[in-house]
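cache lookup: miss for this entity combination. No prior model stored, computing from scratch. Input as submitted by user K.M.:
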Amino acid sequence: MLIVMESPATREMVDSVCREIEQMGLQPQVIEGSARTVIGITGNKSRVNSDRILAQPGVMDIVHVTQPYRLVSREAFPEDTIVDVNGIKVGGPEFVVMAGPCAVESREQCMAIAEKVVASGAKIFRGGAYKPRTSPYSFQGLKEDGLKILAEVRQEHGLAIVTEAIDIDVIDMVADYADIVQIGSRNMQNYSLLRKAGRLKKPILLKRGMAATMEEFLMAAEYIMNEGNRDVILCERGVRTFADHTRNTLDLSAVPYIKHTSHLPIITDPSHGTGRKDKVVALSRASIAAGADGLLIEVHHKPAEAMSDGSQSITPDAFDEMMHSLRRLADALDRSLP
Ligand code: PEP
Ligand code: MN
């Protein structure tokens, strides 16, 4: 249930509604929107006595949320959420491209790729310092040394950094270095990790589990928001299907579904979503057309030598060409892509 306050509502009015909710044995969650303040009630198992709340000064309306998720739902919060990453606005008119290697391999590798992707218009640099690998014998990432390299990339090229936290042991350290903390597909339902991400003061990039329904995906985001972190960017990264011409099937229908159902920004990852570099450009173009707010793209200057995901990594030249074609699409779609 959501309590919509009049605009403007004073702090005393908001506090008094919160006290009333607490007296009912429930938990209020104050959400300051740009237009008005909304108070969410979480933890209610049955319908709340709304008359008591409606009688409070400053209360404009009460919305009973019919979906199982509340904080992520557009029914409850009609306004688009725009996640501000050091001034880069994800979820607004600008189409935001995040690009970089699958894994941080060395300072030289990251600098070589960063220099190119920033020149092509990427705003955020990606790269895993902790890699969730299928085999324990595969390269697991440079760990904190990798995070330090990413911090140097930010320093040198002015790119924001997105990198994955693979477990609760490393998430605080990752958050110290990153501008966006990525929760990977394999961890989408790692609830202790989601709760911890919800207590961070950094935006979270939440990737869809490879077999997750939309409800499970949005519920995972709800875990993060329920801890107080409202800066969640969703990412469609492909699901497992019978198709064997690609590694995963990028579910582009997730984009309009999420846009309709949630106020959170959604980007796509055509690299993991297809697993094939020859499919990345077409699906990136399709993503912007479907209404995505941005992209996560794996770029490597020497894909054949990449320590992970070389077969789905495009070269900086291919990335540059793709950005040109996306710019033309952005124009046609009333989005900006600097
Ligand atoms: C990644 O983006 O580096 C990654 C491991 O992706 P996913 O969690 O989608 O497999
Ligand atoms: Mn990868």
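stored under new cache key. The longest strand covers residues 27-32.
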